[in-house]
Design a protein that fits this description.
This protein has 623 residues and is an alpha/beta fold. It folds into four domains: 202 residues, P-loop containing nucleotide triphosphate hydrolases (Rossmann fold, 3-Layer(aba) Sandwich); 159 residues, Rossmann fold; 106 residues, Arc Repressor Mutant, subunit A; 78 residues, Orthogonal Bundle (DNA polymerase, domain 1). The strands form four sheets. A seven-stranded parallel beta sheet has the order 3-4-2-5-6-1-7, with helices on both faces. α1 crosses α3, α14 packs antiparallel against α15 and α24 crosses α26. Bound molecules: adenosine-5'-diphosphate and zinc ion. The site of zinc ion has 8 residues, from α16 and α17.
Length: 623
């Protein structure tokens, strides 16, 4: 039976299999389009519900006799949980990756060829092996190749932040299996990356579904970096005690140091970076997914594909490369829709480091120009004194109005006019360069302007420079802020090849002439330190989902969570794969006595009702 776009089946599958009442946002048209055999490119923010966009068509097409859906996913470490979640929902799924031995691999292949598998997950390098392709040929010949889903599609683009060369080879899917529909999905794509995905994956004919990228439950804050680790510690203690979170740092060493500092302060923190042994990394990731309230301190090696719904905060101790990276990483907070924080500490050193990394990279000049442009966009977000969300969304081509849920909206920052300070700094740099014939770094320039007779000042005779001491009214943090903004806007550059010395640029002249005003955020106390404390639920049970329950509801919720923990351990899966907190909270609120009472609770599909209904009733009955 050919499926048509008006087929009622997808909605039935959503309700019966996944236990959700209605499609969310653009899911319905996507699912219809793909189920009917169309190609699609889906751009949806993290937590938007991308998985169902291919899982439901896969189930519908399998039911219609069209065979297996192959899901290309870059992270073998997470396939186990994804497949486990489908099993919990009663969907036949499997993965092929290097964790399987030969026998297991053959078993999966046999089941796939017999058409017993609805969704098969595999890494791109596996999909494009001759062996796998010949198996796909066989399926195709028999009309049993239903769909290709290409997850994390931005990996195909070098403009994205997770470029994976193996993704380039995926064009074979289109060339070899022309009639088989494809759906590519990503949570990040500015116009450039999007165009690149279309070209690289040959999706010119695909329908594009672009959702709003807004994540209204995430509160964005960017604070001025002073003592970054202490600031982080205070942020966690004040707002996220007992919560699960991710802290991103630039280097492995910093990851180790910060994790240690957090642990010393009694926070349940674990390190994660590419320098750790693979098995230890896997162990830490498992603990993050399975235990409650773990803070993962990590390099960006961590996080792609992590679908833990209750991450309550993502903190950046070092600035990412660009807005795509920032948005993807912060997007890992609050997938469950409950309030979450994206917090970043940002300082002069970040600007210098990021600029240097671009300058020193072996890439071609054209590539570097694009990277500099992307960095500039992030810098202006960090320097902004207006709504962060308006700027973020604007970057992705979306217009919006001030959000009321970012640091700048909640506590509009004081702005001071740094034009005079900027001119004095630039002319000091100019004069010193004139006098000595070499350039100097930020610290020395500030010392001269503030009239400090340091050893170095005396050594070079810089107390005789005409700007010496004419900026004594400015504090060092103020001047640092001005320098940061000058570098961020390109009115000053840092020469990484020459000890990070400051160099005038084309843009310096306009500032020197007073044609470009320099407005800065007041650097008194960081907005995060002033913002009102958020209401917290009870300690150790960070669950916004359960906040509205009465005392007996809370008790049922706690008991259900304990039961869920046992089941999850038995099945070797993260707890949220069994039931989300929100589902447990809804059960606790309803205090069900019969299986009928459980019907219609979001997240309880047919299979879960059958498998766990009786247990859930028993747990609730003990109150
Ligand atoms: P993404 O891959 O886009 O980041 P997921 O597919 O992991 O997002 O979905 C995020 C969460 O939203 C998941 O827990 C999922 O079960 C839930 N979800 C998705 N679609 C719906 C829906 N229509 N109704 C209720 N919950 C949904
Ligand atoms: Zn705002």
């Amino acid at each position: 039976m050919p499926l048509t776009a008006s087929s009622p089946e997808p909605l039935q599958i959503l309700q019966e299999v996944f236990g959700y009442a209605a499609f969310r946002g653009p899911q319905a048209p996507i699912v219809d389009h793909v189920t009917a055999g169309g190609d699609a490119l889906v751009l949806m923010p993290t937590g938007g519900g991308k998985s169902l966009c291919y899982q439901i068509p896969a189930i519908a097409r399998q039911r219609a006799g069209q065979g297996v859906t192959v899901v290309v996913s870059p992270l073998i470490a997470l396939m186990h949980d994804q497949v486990g979640a489908l099993h919990e929902a009663g969907v036949s799924a499997a993965f092929l990756n290097s964790t399987l031995d030969w026998e297991q691999t053959q078993d999966v292949e046999r089941r796939m060829l017999r058409g017993e598998i609805t969704l098969l997950y595999a890494a791109p390098e596996r999909v494009t092996t001759p062996r796998f392709l010949s198996q796909l040929d066989s399926l195709k010949e028999r009309g049993k190749l239903a769909l290709f889903a290409i997850d994390e599609a931005h990996c195909v683009s070098q403009w994205g932040h997770d470029f994976r060369p193996e993704y380039r080879a995926l064009t074979v899917l289109h060339e070899r299996y022309a009639g088989v529909p494809r759906i590519a999905l990503t949570a990040t794509a500015d116009a450039l990356t999007r165009a690149d995905i279309v070209e690289r994956l040959q999706l010119e004919e695909a329908r594009q579904f672009v959702s709003s990228f807004d994540r209204p439950n995430i509160r964005y804050s960017i604070v001025e970096k002073k003592e970054a680790t202490t600031q982080l510690l205070r942020f966690i203690e004040r707002e996220h005690e007992g919560d699960a979170g991710v802290v991103y740092c630039q280097s492995r060493k910093r990851v180790e140091d910060v994790a240690q500092t957090l642990c010393d302060a009694g926070i349940n923190a674990l390190p994660y970076h590419a320098g750790l042994d693979a098995s230890l990394r896997q162990k830490h990731q498992d603990r993050f997914l399975r235990d409650e309230g773990i803070v993962m301190v990590a390099t960006i090696a961590f996080g792609m594909g992590i679908d833990k719904p209750d991450v309550r905060f993502v903190a950046h101790l070092d600035m990412p490369k660009n807005i795509e990276g920032y948005y993807q990483e912060t997007g890992r907070a609050g997938r469950d829709g409950a309030p979450a924080d994206a917090w970043m500490a940002y300082g002069l050193q970040d600007v210098v480091n990021q600029r240097r990394m671009i300058d020193e990279s072996p890439a071609g000049e054209e590539f570097k120009q694009v990277m500099r442009g992307k960095l500039d966009a992030l810098l202006s977000l960090a320097e902004a004194s207006d709504c962060r969300r308006v700027r973020l969304l604007g970057y992705f081509g979306e217009k919006s109005i001030p959000c009321g849920n970012c640091d700048n909206c909640l506590n509009p920052p004081q702005v001071w006019d740094g034009t005079d300070a900027a001119r004095k700094l630039l002319s000091t740099i100019y004069r010193v360069q004139q006098q000595s014939g070499i350039s100097f770094g930020a610290g020395h320039i500030m010392d001269i302007l503030r009239g400090k007779e340091t050893e170095k000042v005396k050594q070079f005779g810089h107390e005789r420079v005409s700007t010496f001491g004419i900026g004594s009214e400015f504090s060092e943090p103020q001047l640092r802020g001005v320098l940061r903004q000058l570098i961020a806007t390109g009115a000053l550059s840092v020469d990484a090849q020459a000890f990070n010395t400051l160099q005038l640029t084309e843009g310096s002249r306009e500032v020197l002439k007073g044609e470009t005003p320099v407005m800065l955020r007041e650097s008194v106390s960081s907005p995060a330190e002033r913002k009102p404390r958020r209401e917290k639920t009870s300690r150790g049970a960070p669950s916004p989902a359960a906040a509205s329950l009465d005392a007996s509801g809370q008790a049922r919720f706690a008991a259900l969570k304990a039961w869920r923990g046992e089941v999850a351990r038995e099945h070797n899966l993260p707890a949220y794969v069994i039931f989300h907190d929100a589902t447990l909270a809804a059960i606790a609120e309803r205090a069900p006595a019969t299986l009928e009472d459980l019907q219609g609770i979001s997240g309880i599909g047919g299979k879960k009702l059958e498998a766990y209904g009786a247990d859930v009733l028993r747990v609730c009955a003990s109150f």
